[in-house]
């Protein structure tokens, strides 16, 4: 008789957010190394955001692809528990597909032309103050991030995606996370002059500030990350990218670069205020 493997309990920190990305990445890395069943214990977690949910979902997807099981213990805190249930992380861990017509976390294996349209429609119908005009930048950003994943990342799980509206800050947060080669490595492979001498953080900064550096590989179409940064920052929003050994954030016309807990892949979170007036001056002479 084969004995069942004992379960390994991993406790999620009190805050599973992008500001706490180092601890989250460390937890996910440990979970992916384990072959026995893992229990994600969110008992004491009080706060989640789009980044945290999408990162945990990506880790679950990696484990699932390797044939390893994962369980989730829901938080005690009412607001955190409700958030997890609204984005259906518990269902994702159990292998359930997202409910149609919702903004639940999902795993994508290919670019779906209807997905960004559906996200835009749901935001217009469900969020006060958002109309078809100011939801368009969100749709553009999401489509560009997904295009980048499926063209550049070589991610075996595709990506995990979560879009959420935050009433208090009147912002929409998009998180797109892949488990591929990482943005700096992908760009260095294309032998772009000078990039091989830069740190991971500097390569990411170049990708977001150099025109057309991350446009389509065939040179046709695509906004590029530079345009995404301008769309987000001109409305007082924030763009954060974590990849390999770096975490880079653009906020209020400034860039912040720090060394990160090593992360295999690329994680992008956009915090955009769609109804805020655009201020092009925040993207001029930033660096």
Describe the protein:
The structure is a single chain. By secondary structure, the protein is an alpha/beta fold. It has one domain (9-283): Histidine kinase-like ATPase, C-terminal domain (Heat Shock Protein 90, 2-Layer Sandwich). Helices cover 35% and strands 24% of the residues. It has helices spanning 21-33, 50-65, 78-87, 89-93, 115-126, 136-153, 183-189, 200-209, 225-233, and strands spanning 8-11, 15-16, 38-41, 47-48, 70-73, 106-108, 159-166, 171-178, 238-251, 254-272. Strand 9 (238-251) and strand 10 (254-272) form a beta hairpin. Helix 1 (21-33) packs parallel to helix 2 (50-65), helix 5 runs antiparallel to helix 6 (136-153) and helix 7 packs across helix 8 (200-209). It is globular and about 50 Å long. The termini are far apart. Residues 216-221 and 283-287 have low confidence and may be disordered.
Keywords for this entry:
single chain; 287 residues; alpha/beta; Heat Shock Protein 90; 5-stranded antiparallel sheet; 3-stranded parallel sheet; globular; disordered C terminus
Structural class: alpha/beta
Distance between the termini: 64 Å
Q: Unreliable segments (pLDDT under 50, ≥5 consecutive)?
A: 216-221, 283-287
Helical segment count: 9
CATH superfamily: Histidine kinase-like ATPase, C-terminal domain
Residues in helix, %: 25-40%
Number of strands: 10
Order of helices and strands: EEHEEHEHHEHHEEHHHEE
Strand order of the largest sheet: 6-7-8-10-9
Question: From the alpha-carbon coordinates, what is the Rg to the nearest angstrom?
Answer: 19 Å
| Gross geometry | globular
- CATH C-level category: Alpha Beta
